[in-house]
Amino acid sequence: MKEFGYQRVLDVSEAVAVLGADPDARFLGGGTNLVDLMKTGIERPGRLVDVRELPLDRVEMTPDGGLLIGATVTNSDLAAHPEVRRRYPALAQAVLAGASGQLRNMATVGGNLLQRTRCGYFTDVAGPCNKRLPGSGCPAIEGEHHNHAILGASGHCVATHPSDMGVALAAFDAVVRYETADGPGELPLADFYLPVGDTPHLETALPSGALITGVILPPAPVAAHSRYRKVRERASYAFAIGSIAAVLDVRDGVVHEVRLAFGAVASRPWRALEAERALTGGPATAEAFAAAADAELAAAEALPHNGYKVPLMRNLVVALLTELAEEAAR
Amino acid sequence: MAPSTSSVITLTINGEKYTLPVDHRTTLLDALREHLDLTGTKKGCDQGQCGACTVLLDGRRAVSCLQLAVAAEGRDVTTIEGVADGDRLHPVQQAFLDLDGYQCGYCTPGQICSALAVIEEHAAGWPSAVTADVRPEAGPPPLTADEIRERMSGNLCRCGAYVSIVQAVAQAAEAQATGTEEVVA
C-alpha cells in the first residue's frame, strides 16, 4: 500500500477545503471498499480525509414528508430505521441484502454510492482494464463475464455496479445532495452515474472535489408498497447476479403506479422505464408483467456467458410484481 | 507539502488505553496483533470477506482488517480478550464450548464477537435479509435458525462447524433473553 497522510474533519466546509487543497486526497467513510482497494494498489491516495465523524449521521423527515438520509449514516442504521422500514421497505430490504453485519456497521450511505465494481479484471492489477487503466482494454468481453452487464454496457466496459442500496434508491427517485467549495448542489440518482460509453473510468457526475452530504427520498406514499429481491450464487453474503426493487400501486386490478429498478445488470442501478410505461394504466396480471419485462429487456445485449440474466430478470419482474399485486388485492 | 504518513495514536481496547506510533497504513487488526500482542483477533482473508478479525467498535461488530488503526482513535474497541468477566466466560463463549461450536478454533474469536453483536442487534429489533416483514409494526422476528444463519453469514468457518455454531448462538441468545426476563420479574 502506498503511504498516505490522514486527517479527520469535523465539519463539511473543512472537509471540502482540505480535499480541494490536495488533488491526491480522497474522502474516507467506512473504508470497506476504499481500504480494500488501497491494499491492492488500485486506489493510491496520498491523503485520506476521514469524514466519518461529520454531523451527517441522521435520518430526518423533510418538511414535505420525505426523508433526508445523511451521508455518514451506516448501512445498519439505515436498514434499522423505523421510518425507512415503514415507508420505504424495499430500501431496508436492499441494504440488508448487501454485505455482512460487520460491513453494514462500517459502510456509509455516501460511500455505498461511490463503491467500485467487483469485476475481477478491475481488481486484478496485473492485467488490462479500461476502468482502472483507460485505453488498456476490456478482457471481460472475451473472458470471464458470467456476472457482467446486459444493459447499457459498451465495447469498452461491461462491468456492473455492485450496490443493492442504489437499486432501491433508483426506484424511489432519490436525489443525491453534495457540497463543493462553491456551495451545495443536487443530482437526481438517474443522472448521478454516467453512461459507460468510451469513458468507463468516469463513473459519476459529481463535480470534482464534491462531498456527498446526503440522499433525499422524495415523499411517495406508494413506496410503502415496495419490495427488494436479490438473486445470488449462495444464500447470503454475496453480490447479486440479478436483483430488483419494485413499487406497485394497483387499484381495481389496474396498475395506477409502478416503479422498477434492476441491479447487477448494468454499470449503474437500472431504472426500467420501458417496463413502467408498458404497465401503467394496464391490467395487473402476470401476462402484463412478463410483457413489460420483455419490453425493457428488448434492449439487452447478452455476452456468451451472461444471457441467463435476461430470463432471470424477466422472472424476477413477474414474481415480485405478482406478489405485490396479490398483497394489494387482500 | 507532503503530509506526514504516521501518527502517535491512543486506542481504547477492552477498557485500557494504549498509546502507540503507527504508520497510517496499519489496520486495527495489525495494530492489535503486531503492535499490542493482542493475538486473539485472527487474520483470515485480510479483505473483509471472512470475518475472522471481527471485533466490536463502540459495541458494534466490525472487521478490523478494513479498519485503519488511526481512524479507530477515540472509539471503544472490544476484542475477544475483553469478552470474559475475569475467569468467568461470557455465556456466548460458554455456549460455543458446551456445543462444540468450532473445530480448529481459528475463526472462533471472530464468530464469538459477531455472535455477541447478533444477539444485541436482534434484541434491538433489527430485521435481517430473511425477515419476512421488515416494517416496525411487524415486531421483531423470532431468532430462528434461519435468522441466525443469515445474521452470522459474515463469519466463515472452513471446518464447517456451522451446525454447532447456530446451536451455540441460539442457546446463548435464549439464556440472555431468559436472564433478562428474570431480572424484570
TrEMBL record, chain A:
<dbReference type="InterPro" id="IPR016166">
    <property type="entry name" value="FAD-bd_PCMH"/>
</dbReference>
<feature type="domain" description="FAD-binding PCMH-type">
    <location>
        <begin position="1"/>
        <end position="222"/>
    </location>
</feature>
<dbReference type="Pfam" id="PF03450">
    <property type="entry name" value="CO_deh_flav_C"/>
</dbReference>
<dbReference type="InterPro" id="IPR005107">
    <property type="entry name" value="CO_DH_flav_C"/>
</dbReference>
<dbReference type="InterPro" id="IPR051312">
    <property type="entry name" value="Diverse_Substr_Oxidored"/>
</dbReference>
<protein>
    <submittedName>
        <fullName>Xanthine dehydrogenase family protein subunit M</fullName>
    </submittedName>
</protein>
<dbReference type="Pfam" id="PF00941">
    <property type="entry name" value="FAD_binding_5"/>
</dbReference>
<dbReference type="InterPro" id="IPR002346">
    <property type="entry name" value="Mopterin_DH_FAD-bd"/>
</dbReference>
Automatic annotation (TrEMBL), chain B:
<keyword id="KW-0560">Oxidoreductase</keyword>
<dbReference type="InterPro" id="IPR052914">
    <property type="entry name" value="Aldehyde_Oxdr_Iron-Sulfur"/>
</dbReference>
<dbReference type="Pfam" id="PF00111">
    <property type="entry name" value="Fer2"/>
</dbReference>
<dbReference type="Pfam" id="PF01799">
    <property type="entry name" value="Fer2_2"/>
</dbReference>
<protein>
    <submittedName>
        <fullName>2Fe-2S iron-sulfur cluster binding domain-containing protein</fullName>
    </submittedName>
</protein>
<dbReference type="InterPro" id="IPR001041">
    <property type="entry name" value="2Fe-2S_ferredoxin-type"/>
</dbReference>
<feature type="domain" description="2Fe-2S ferredoxin-type">
    <location>
        <begin position="7"/>
        <end position="83"/>
    </location>
</feature>
<dbReference type="InterPro" id="IPR002888">
    <property type="entry name" value="2Fe-2S-bd"/>
</dbReference>
<dbReference type="InterPro" id="IPR006058">
    <property type="entry name" value="2Fe2S_fd_BS"/>
</dbReference>
